[in-house]
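QA checklist item 7 of 12: single-chain prediction sanity check.
[x] sequence parsed
[x] length recorded as 435
[x] structure emitted
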Amino acid sequence: MEARSEKKDGVVLLHVSGRLDAFGARQMDRWAKDALADDDKDLVIEMSGSDYLSSGGIRSFNGLKKEMKRRGGRFALAGVGEYPKKVLDMAGFSTVFDIFPDTAAAVADIVKKRKNPTLFNEIFYKKIIDEGLQLTIEPGWKTRPPVLRVLGDLDKVIHARITEADVRTKKFSEVTYSLGLGALGSGMKDAMPLMGEMITLYGSMVWLPTDGNNTPDFLTPLDAGSDVPVYTGYNITLDGPFNEYFTLDTTNPNGVSISDIYRVIFSAAGSRVKGYTGVVALTIWGVIESIASSGLKKAPVAAAAPPGGESIMSPGRIHEWIASDTGNTHRGDTLISFGIGIDLATGATHFSPATLSSLYYANPLNTGAAKQMYLHNHGVVFRNVPYDASLDLNTQVKKVVTDGEFVDMRHLLDSTRLRKAKIGIAYIQDIVRDA
């Protein structure tokens, strides 16, 4: 068996050649899974190179048809030869699958009958358009002003001066969206040496233990009020609702960078958002074009501090303390992220330098628009999660975290790029230091 895939008008075409028996069907299943990104909805199997089909192949077709239905799209066959067509007729599946003479006919029919679930948004909601990027705006909640709650001292993290006296515990039920430094463990002494970058998403905690294995871990308790604590040396928590929701689309085949998303939000907020302070919190559910990331290699505890009070971000120390990956990873997978953005031109007029510096640090691995803004984002990668921008963001975050195939967790660099996304935006009105 051999296969190749391509995409035309948003339809994934999988060209297979060889015998579609039980063994070949298993190969086809793997190839189809590899070819489908989380935002793909339509799949056509092109069979002109396959002259044999058995029940094993039919069973695989049926499974793929169910998968594309789950994604809200269609499954079809094209170029079916004489013998495979006889097998489909005999098994009673000729009327179950959509069958077309070639891929051109299949794609044309799929595109013609394709539904646009975001049509209402396109017609009735305002848009922000900027250099191939479009944000469609949906209203959120204004029940109370969003606030950021900061626990711990970021400077102690950057200089590796965390001690047991700096560590606090939080219950899963106490946080919806947050990021910071944390660990899970049987007790303080167990957690301290493993503290790494963390994110909490609707009762789930995902973190990157600094145990040398470079493998993230997570816990999603059924009882969010349980007594299993999160140990944290530094944490930023969103307290309040999202004021707006944006649906991101782009005509750029390479996607849109996180820094460009924040830049457009900042640029538009100055003229259209009453009470804009220059600080926002974002939760993103999107489809990845590429991820650029970093992560702590060692727990920034006082026992491991660099000599002379040197920062772990200094040029002579950063590669000892920070692992980075700027390659093209996780393309087509799902990203759930939470982060903070500071528009330096506006934020400095509303908050003191000390308050703003409690939210961010200048990461030398970020080579983007550091002079205009500071960004601090953590993200979790999942796979096999259908993307549908018409769905509610918070509901989908909970569903993805609970049901999605967990892949990775990282500190996101500003050059991370997305194909499309649903974004919740909280325009922060105050920054509170918690004891």
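[x] summary fact logged: DSSP finds twelve helices and 23 strands in the chain.
[ ] second reviewer sign-off
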